[in-house]
Amino acid sequence: MREQILQDIKESIIAISMELLHAGKDWFTQLSYEKWALLEIQDLILQNPEASPWDIVEEFINLMDRYSLVPHPNNHIFCVAHDTAWSVLVELMGEEPLH
Fold it and tell me: Which of 17, 62, 55, 19 lies closest to 38 in space, CA to CA?
């Protein structure tokens, strides 16, 4: 499961990178935040090989949820990261692709 989710995340990062080449300003920002979240999740999974990807993603979701509630001009990134992590969690459940 760990290797499959890492592969799915890698494919999503590549897909987003390709979309970024043609994205308008607003969509570019959204995609950049999604890519950042996926890179963070990927790094966390790689840095913690003994931990379940499920637990890592759940912890990331909770962290992004807390960050998104802090008043800050750029807290939208944490809302996007939260939603992106949820899509990873759905992938872990085997319901639909990441992107």
Answer: 17
